[in-house]
Amino acid sequence: MGANIYKNKKPIIFFLLPAFGFMFVFLYYPFVQNIINSFQNITGLGAAATGWNTPWYGNYVDMFKDPNMWTAFKNTLIMTIATVVGQVGIALVLALLINNIKYGTVFFRIVFFFPIVVSATALGLLFNLIFLYDKGMVNQILELFGIAKLIDWKDEGHALMTMLIPVTWQYVGFYFIILVTGLNGIDEELYEAAAIDGASKWQKIRFISIPLIHNTLCTCAILAVTGALKVFDLPWVMFPKGIPYGNTWLTGTYMYYQTFNASNVDYSSAIAVLIVGLGIILSQTVNMIFKAKDY
Amino acid sequence: MMKIKKIVSLIVASTIALSLVACGGKTASEGAPSSESKAPATSTAPETPKAVGPVTLNVTTTYAGNDGNAGNFKEAVASWTEKTGNKVNDASATSDETFKARILSDFETGSEPDVLFFFNGVDSNAFVKAGKVVSIDTIRSEYPDYASNMKEGMMGASPVDGKNYSVPVNGYWEGMFVNKSVCEAAGVKIPDATTTWDEFLAICQKIKDAGYAPIAASLATVPHYWFEFSIYNYLDPATHNILPTSVEDKHGKAWVSGLNDIKALYEKGFFPDNTLTGTDDETVQMFVDGKAAFLIDGSWKVGGIEGMTDSIDNFTVTYVPGKNNRKSTDIIGGLSSGYYITTKAWEDPEKRAAAVDFVKYMTSDEMVSKFAGVSATALKNGVKVDESALSSLALSGLELVKGATGMAGAVQDQIPTEARVPVFDGMPNLVTGKVEIPAAVTQVLDAIGK
Amino acid sequence: MNKGTLTRKSKFKLSICFIYIALSIWALTTIYPIIWVVLNSFKDRRFIISRSFELPVGELFTLGNYQLAFERVNIFGAYRNSLVISCTVAAVVILFAGLAAYILVRYEFPGKKLLQSLVLAGMMFPAFSTIIPVFRLMNSWGIVNTNNVWLSLLATALPQIAGNMSFSIVVLTGFIRGLPIELEEAAYMEGCNIYQIFFKVIMPLTKPAFATVGTFSFLWSYNDLFTQMFTLRLKDQWAITRLLNELTSMEGTNYGLMAAAVTLVVIPVMIVYICLQKYIIKGMTAGAVKG
């Protein structure tokens, strides 16, 4: 069905060319350079390569031996789960809730967007002050409840949680807007018809809303997975250099660190290749999961 | 053949640049060089440069943003352009890692500026090696009095070949800032030039017993200053800057002993509780808020602390207590940046004289005094500062420099950033014993040798 | 009967109340930071960390941060530059990504899988691993490192367009896939060609999605300091993010000034978002499907 319109393949090239032209020149071609860089020896961003690595794939071997890389990998997996479940989950709940109200939708849509527009530097400072050891907001509140001993929210036991909460919180609004956009595409009459059939609220969500924003949810899941792999700015402001003891590295922050702090550009190029590879694999997996699941 | 082509293209490029400037600029910089070219360059530069038509210089410096000298630089550029009729395209930016990357890629792509104010340590190696900047000796072969007001040995020779390429302006020193009220509350004497290391330890213990953190430092993010001084304590101004060849030689041992001292301070609990998790901003704030007594930092912190407190008289700066051969009055300091003239500008007959004149103007005694304030300079005649305008903290900074018996540059400037990782970012692992100190030093030395 | 409606109504009200409470709790967490930033922008740097959670009244209050921001720099010129760059980026991205997404959804052709993977990969390329080759390329075209404002703005927009393309294609693909193909068939029957179908059927029906994509492209372009560091050199070329970064980044960060800078940066983005979000409205496809 519909195949008739799309039998003539001529427009394909004209429609694809502008977008992919841009991406080839400004993304793929430079990234090929990046792949080449990962086999060379480069000591600073912008500096020329001083020759090939020995062995040429040395950086990739180093990655396997680098304990920080393993920490980053582990934390990023946790981050992925937090983003998919936390960000997309909370966003979905909020979007479904807002779908049920008449007044104030615009207000909520605007305020939920706030965390995305405030720069990570400012948010990082705010959260640093909230979780400050001596005496941030949280420790002050705890004091009110009689817990006098200061808690170091950035020590080994707490660091990961202290990082995950703000990062998850920050991008809920992003998925919220995409999901709201998706929910708005659903025909109001479907709900009305269901109401006549005596469907409960929950049933409406389960059998109308969720199936019909299936595509949008899939998009969000892909964005969440890839986003987790490259998340960088807020974690970097709050936990520079993987403090404490390199416990909070993420693939995104570790790559940045290797580029700018350790001036190990070739190694960071290798990490970038790994991130892109992982991203493709993970997002294809997400795609498959969503395709397999039939509503 | 190639050279001619290059020069021709440069001339074409600069003409284009000129015409573009003329389009938008207010100064009549194009055409008729006859009337405007007799630039009256007399005031500070002893030798009048050969008169050339108005030129547009591309200048990039780190005098931008909140740099204390950003305003001074703007004024200086304005007065130079007025004096000479030349024009300056100022592409200065705050110095950070992105800025460094931009400068390096500019050199790589041949779009470097004519005059550059940049670091003279390992950061400059790439373009010095590539011959993209002109050495002072080469410039002096045509302009004999170039940078003649500077002390030869202090100009910041390139780590590549030991030659001078840049002319420094304002330098830095590192010292120990003191929050006086904390010392008073703990009933200890404020350290001075005579305080020894052991006395310092006793003072710290008393401060700790009084319930304050003796030393504000974030070992997690900025252990740099403690690294310098603890190693310095096992060396002296003459030998501090020699890199060890192995962990076993005299310098290698000094490094290990120095790092062990930091570990000892950590174990005694002289750093804040969150020194391994907090950021530098947080620990500096502790110091200003009167929760910690001492802070080792650089001369730039004078302005930083002035901006953070109402009671500047509560703060002073003194020498970091020394031990062994290092006297407390032996300080760390130097001139880590300077003005370079690029080969591109030097080989451009139109720009050569203007570039030289610009650097001479910017590095004259008068100008350097204005830029340097309380920081170190390489001037033969020293700086002239109006002391009445300075805060008490700035004055104690001046005293610190005057009373210094020796000065050594920071040894970390000789270590490529890539190699510093095990002892800088790895500092928390060293003080908690997760990594053996000699092993970490060996890693650094291996990385330098690579 | 009467009784029945009554209980249903009160139950209904209760659940609505619960919804408002839940939404409001989340709203509090998102509003608070921006209020915190604005309040602190009226405090001197001395008090930002030590008295961060107090209101800026009495001795805490100052307009100094804003004075500094407006005195030191040409803030309106920077706003203009930012708007030129980011509007260009958003417009070009919307159009080109829309075209590409449409093809990737509706057509079957060899190499489609590969292109889809390339799009996903494009989302993850870090800007700092691509900027140097891009910079060299643009240098050879002569559009960076010139004195010309417009060329510099162009040089900033080009890589940003490419950078936002992948994300936009991914999102738009999701939405176009959800459109009932019957509408396109109907238009085709009425004699529309493929271009007309895209501009007269696809684009209007997915207007909310295009608005979303436009918002984020604008936002990310606007906040992208890194590209600007390379492409915008001279002061008259600076965009607002670049300009305020120069003001605030230095030894002993001036947090008061930073808060003022964030406030000044956020205002235009909020205006753009508020303008665009009204396109995200209910029932775009509803009437059309019926017809």
Written account of the structure:
Chain C: This is ABC transporter permease. Chain A: This is ABC transporter permease. The complex is a heterotrimer of chains A (295), B (450) and C (291). Chain A has 295 residues and is mostly helical. Chain A has one domain: MetI-like (MetI-like fold), CATH 1.10.3720. In chain A, 71% of the residues lie in helices and 0% in strands. Chain A contains 13 helices and no strands. The mean pLDDT of chain A is 87. Chain B has 450 residues and is of the alpha/beta class. Chain B has two domains: 2-170 and 335-372, D-Maltodextrin-Binding Protein, domain 2 (3-Layer(aba) Sandwich), CATH 3.40.190.10; 172-332 and 396-449, D-Maltodextrin-Binding Protein, domain 2 (3-Layer(aba) Sandwich). In chain B, 41% of the residues lie in helices and 11% in strands. The longest helix of chain B is centred in the N-terminal third of the chain and has 23 residues, at 2-24. Chain B is globular, with a radius of gyration of 24 Å. By secondary structure, chain C is mainly α. The radius of gyration of chain C is 24 Å and the shape is flat. The two termini of chain C are 37 Å apart. The chains are: A mainly alpha (295), B alpha/beta (450), C mainly alpha (291). Chains in contact: A-B, A-C, B-C. At the A-C interface, helix 1, helix 3, helix 4, helix 5 and helix 7 of A face helix 1, helix 4, helix 5, helix 6 and helix 7 of C.
Please describe the topology of this protein.
The complex is a heterotrimer of chains A (295), B (450) and C (291).
Chain A (H helix, E strand, L loop, with lengths): L9 H28 L20 H8 L1 H32 L6 H13 L2 H11 L6 H8 L14 H26 L3 H9 L4 H12 L1 H17 L2 H6 L12 H11 L3 H28 L3
Helix pairs in contact in A: 3-7, 3-10, 3-12, 4-7, 10-13, 12-13
Chain B lengths: L1 H23 L8 H4 L19 E5 L9 H15 L2 E4 L6 H13 L5 E5 L5 H5 L6 H5 L26 E2 L3 E8 H7 L10 H13 L3 E3 L8 H9 L17 H18 L12 H9 L3 E7 L2 H8 L6 E4 L11 E5 L2 E5 L1 H4 L5 H11 L2 H8 L19 H11 L3 E3 L8 H4 L6 H5 L5 H13 L1
Parallel strand pairs in B: 1-2, 1-3, 6-7, 9-11
Antiparallel strand pairs in B: 3-10, 4-10, 5-7, 5-8, 5-9
Helix pairs in contact in B: 7-8, 9-10
Chain C lengths: L1 H39 L4 H4 L15 H9 L2 H32 L5 H11 L4 H15 L7 H29 L3 H9 L4 H12 L1 H17 L1 H7 L8 H9 L6 H23 L6 H7 L1
Helix pairs in contact in C: 1-13, 3-13, 4-7, 4-10, 5-7, 6-11, 7-10, 7-11, 8-9, 10-13, 12-13
